[in-house]
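Whiteboard transcription, Tuesday session. T.W. wrote the structure tokens on the left side:
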């Protein structure tokens, strides 16, 4: 990542040598659907409604493109546009945040203790500091738990830890939406090395995957609308708090003949 203080100079003075390149990578907060409070859809929805995705993008020094659907733009089946809880490219209004707080209160969840699980490295820890502050604003009693990067994913992937909410991301192993849906399928739930951190087990997702995952890669374009519909359903259920898609800077030296 190009440092935030240097990036404006690069963008303005090296236009022909700088390019922001989209990656097949989704950044999101997992929310455990098996334990309180995020086994309640209203709690998950409130987080998604009140999340300031443009602010999180700023924490990334512009490396994240705000979004709310699970599949990134480079993968067939990605859905553009607003989600049911708002436009991800626009910061939520005070009225929207107030409505999210009301959802928590109406569900009887105000004051519930929550632990946000975070990696040590930046900006990932900053993302989780933001999330921790947001949860407290919404009415939870939230604290931050920072884990060393080298053991973070195996720690939250241990089902006995019962992590409630925290940082997660995924970059493609192969360019197919089924690769990403390992994180939202029953097959991904394991006692150890669990990758479905939200423990999502939804019959509608399973029935769609049973059909879509059989199709060969050559038919991905034809099935894109079906994957989009599934991704829309996942967003509507708030089975995670997607906040952006990773990009990488392509920045060439002035010794490189760009036009050639």
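and on the right, the sequence the group agreed on:
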């Amino acid at each position: 990542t190009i440092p935030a203080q240097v990036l404006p100079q690069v963008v303005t003075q090296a236009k022909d040598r700088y390019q922001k390149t989209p990656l097949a990578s989704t950044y999101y907060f997992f929310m455990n659907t098996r334990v309180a409070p995020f086994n309640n859809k209203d709690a998950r929805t409130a987080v998604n409604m009140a999340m300031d995705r443009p602010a999180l993008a700023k924490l990334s020094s512009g490396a994240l493109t705000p979004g709310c659907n699970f599949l990134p733009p480079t993968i067939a089946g990605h859905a553009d546009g607003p989600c049911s809880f708002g436009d991800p490219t626009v910061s939520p209004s005070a009225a929207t945040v107030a409505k999210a707080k009301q959802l928590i209160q109406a569900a009887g969840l105000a004051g519930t203790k929550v632990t946000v699980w975070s990696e040590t490295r930046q900006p990932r820890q900053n993302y989780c500091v933001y999330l921790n502050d947001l949860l407290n604003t919404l009415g939870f009693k939230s604290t931050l738990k920072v884990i060393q990067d080298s053991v973070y994913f195996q720690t939250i992937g241990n089902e006995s830890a019962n992590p409630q909410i925290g940082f997660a991301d995924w970059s493609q192993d192969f360019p197919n939406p089924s690769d990403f849906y390992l994180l939202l399928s029953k097959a991904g739930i394991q006692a150890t090395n669990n990758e479905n951190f939200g423990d999502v087990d939804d019959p509608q997702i399973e029935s769609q995957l049973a059909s879509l995952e059989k199709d060969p890669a050559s038919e991905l374009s034809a099935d894109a609308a079906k994957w989009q519909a599934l991704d829309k359903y996942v967003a509507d259920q708030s089975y995670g708090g997607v906040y952006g898609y990773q990009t990488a800077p392509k920045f060439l030296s002035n010794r490189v003949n760009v036009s050639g």
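Someone added at the bottom: Residues 220-236 form the longest helix (17 residues).
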